[in-house]
Design goal:
Layout lengths: L1 H10 L10 E2 L3 E2 L1 H11 L10 H7 L16 E5 L5 E9 L2 E6 L8 H7 L2 E6 L6 E5 L7
Length: 141
């Protein structure tokens, strides 16, 4: 299932970053991207979560940098020991994918295009505020 999840996520590369966006037809923000992908695979009940809620609300075991990161794991960025402000999806090989480059002012496709805000593949620690990994538990693992 991890391979299918990653393949779907990669098909969304280039989709615009839209603040509050949560689907491929109108665009994604960082948490909207994770929520949509996880819900497609039945891994998250319906609802809307912030990056903070995704990380704190579902964390049972956190792996820090240097430990194995599996495709589909949630990667969190923010203040060490504080608020989580950004999430991405692990691809493996120290890469992540997710909606990035925008903020609360990125509310249109034009604004996203001007900023280069879209779903992108990046190195795992592309931000200095990397916090940790939330392992994704697939049914049957």
């Amino acid at each position: 299932m991890r391979e299918h999840l990653v393949n779907l996520a990669l098909k969304l590369v280039g989709c615009p970053y839209i603040w509050g966006g949560a689907n491929p037809w109108t665009g994604f923000d960082c948490s909207g991207f994770i929520i949509w992908i996880y819900q497609v695979f039945g891994l998250l009940p319906s609802g809307d979560w912030t990056a903070e809620e995704l990380y704190r609300g579902h964390s049972l075991c956190i792996r820090k940098s240097g430990h194995s990161v599996l495709p589909g794991d949630l990667v969190a960025y923010g203040e060490k020991g504080g608020r989580i402000i950004h999430v991405m999806l692990a691809l493996g090989n120290n890469l992540v994918v997710g909606a990035s480059g925008g903020d609360h002012t990125t509310t249109t496709e034009e604004a996203a295009r001007r900023r280069g805000a879209q779903v992108k593949v990046k190195p795992l620690e592309y931000r200095q505020d990397f916090v940790g990994i939330l392992p994704l538990q697939f049914p049957g693992e």
